[in-house]
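Limitations
The structure tokens in this dataset are predictions for the assembled complex, not deposited experimental models. Users should treat interface geometry with appropriate caution, especially where small molecules or nucleic acid strands are included. An illustrative entry is reproduced here so readers can see what is and is not provided.
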Amino acid sequence: MATVAEKKRLKRNKILEAAYELFASKGMHMTPIDEVVKKAGVAKGTFYLYFRDKYELTDQIILHKSTQIVRQVLAEVREQGEKECLDAVEQILLFLDKMISTMAQNRPVLTLLSGKISTVYDLLADENSEFRDTAQSLVELMMQIGLTAEQAGKQLYVMLNMFCSVCCDAVLSGSPYSVDELRPEIRRMAQKLLT
Amino acid sequence: MATVAEKKRLKRNKILEAAYELFASKGMHMTPIDEVVKKAGVAKGTFYLYFRDKYELTDQIILHKSTQIVRQVLAEVREQGEKECLDAVEQILLFLDKMISTMAQNRPVLTLLSGKISTVYDLLADENSEFRDTAQSLVELMMQIGLTAEQAGKQLYVMLNMFCSVCCDAVLSGSPYSVDELRPEIRRMAQKLLT
Amino acid sequence: MATVAEKKRLKRNKILEAAYELFASKGMHMTPIDEVVKKAGVAKGTFYLYFRDKYELTDQIILHKSTQIVRQVLAEVREQGEKECLDAVEQILLFLDKMISTMAQNRPVLTLLSGKISTVYDLLADENSEFRDTAQSLVELMMQIGLTAEQAGKQLYVMLNMFCSVCCDAVLSGSPYSVDELRPEIRRMAQKLLT
Amino acid sequence: MATVAEKKRLKRNKILEAAYELFASKGMHMTPIDEVVKKAGVAKGTFYLYFRDKYELTDQIILHKSTQIVRQVLAEVREQGEKECLDAVEQILLFLDKMISTMAQNRPVLTLLSGKISTVYDLLADENSEFRDTAQSLVELMMQIGLTAEQAGKQLYVMLNMFCSVCCDAVLSGSPYSVDELRPEIRRMAQKLLT
DNA sequence: AATGAATGAGAATTCATTCAT
DNA sequence: CATGAATGAATTCTCATTCAT
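Predicted assembly:
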């Protein structure tokens, strides 16, 4: 077993997780590297062995966490979609709904995501992404309701962005409406957009 | 003429404007007070005569600039709406369209607004806001298409948030789509949502 | 009295003096700013009010100290030269001799000067230097022994550099010869060069 | 063939050369060990197998490079001296002239040598040096022009130091005069000193 | 012998804020 | 009211050196 590379990956992850929790609760600008390494249980120098600087760390966290969320949501959608034989519209609605739920339960990640939402979309759209296939099938689902490939792509992006943004606001500030207050309305709007 | 109070207001505005430009281009965290006061042409101590601290300044800028934008957009909508005798849906679409255009032309303000979009809505919804009446009429317009007051309020919020968010991404990063690419799609979606 | 500018000059000088002593005894690279400010009795931030960074400080010290030394030497030469009605060659020899003595007594300054000797010459040659006139008269003295202006300039430079360099080595390391061992030899060589 | 000891010597030399180039271009204080070992193609730990610390490395480089230069210069002088049957003065002048030329062509080595010129002399004077004999013959040459052994030693030292110092300044900063501008003057002075 | 991950003391520098003038 | 010199805690990042593999 490649214990050496494995240990490195583990250490990197420890830093990533420690930073995530801190950044999420106090914001990146309010979290000194000192605290991150202390929480991660590594030396200060070790941090700079794995990340060029604080900004690279931030980027990595966003990537890391977004990936986690998208991966989880897609897995659930796929499973439930198959089990319940959902049609195109229903699957997309389910995807958006799950995204909202998951984000609502991941308050901290929203703090980081806020204002960088296109990152999530980039994850889906990137040629080399592990999600490429799924993203493709989402677009195909939307084409089944009569959109061109381009329209489908754009609309998917706008809807994702829209729901994420509303979620961020709703979850983070709860003002003027909470997620739960907004959720039925969002669903109604999504349905309207998809028919 | 109250030259004393007037001069104070002027100096305060000079600081606000200087900070706005700096914050917009480099971000608040990357802009030291030193630079702000230098650009504003006042002494460092003077700054603290007008603002409690850097955070109050930031808040004030967002308020200041959002107000400017909303005020401008609403004025244009009102004028054109009257001139062209637009119906409810058309007025709302015009409002959203103008918001997009104005934001697209105010790249810097988006930097600040990004992730704080509900601020704009708060402006509209606040009891004491100068926009209260207009916001009220927007809601009433939406009720004309068959929504309850509550639904109308929420939908207005969601649509605003959605469009602002998409604009921020599109204008600021241009990725994955530019505003101009997205604008027709957005309009189509808005229309669908309002019928 | 302009107490404000005066106080600033004083504080700057305090830093300069503190740094000089520290740099001279341990070398600039071995002296943290922390120690400098502590010795100067000012806050760390104050340091950066007066000097861009450690390197500017170093340059300033060299300038400051070289100026002090040259000023002192020239004053002595002028005085003694007049009193004893010395001729050209004798005055130059006296100048070099005094330079050697003064440097020998200013061990610390040599630490800083070592390897940056042309600084001293620059001081003499700089158009705006307070020493311009004196430097000019040194050159004129050398022209009296039959050199062209250009030859005189170069020879003055070479001799200065040569003597400073030998002094640095001799004073700082005492190896292979001490200043006192070398001084007669140097004098003999200077005399030879000037006739 | 002693491949073991040979390989070690080779690795040591690789480090020495890598460090030399780096130190020469950016200065020792600005060159981290990291860069040295990377350039040398060895691991960081390996460095400490061959050198106690960074300071020992620096010393070794200066020694290494000075030796190279002196060895080269002396070889050339010896060869040309024999071929052209030069007399004492001419040989010394040739030696100094070659030193200047070689240094002018070895800009980087001067960076390191600057302020440590007596090292070169130490090389010549050290009892166990490979140059002991040559240095001795240089002294003897000077005694041929009527100096005592002691005077000869000192004068050789002063002249060496003087020329090296002037070279460092001239080559490194080119200010106030370049090597080429100074060279005739230096030669003239050397000639004067040797007669 | 060689490696390179890990260390952590330390260094430079910044900057929001205060306060005497 | 206005000023800007002074502060020093806080922060980021570096790097020589060690040591387990």
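Some entries come with short summary sentences. For this one: Residues 62-194 of chain A form a domain with the Tetracycline Repressor; domain 2 fold (CATH 1.10.357).
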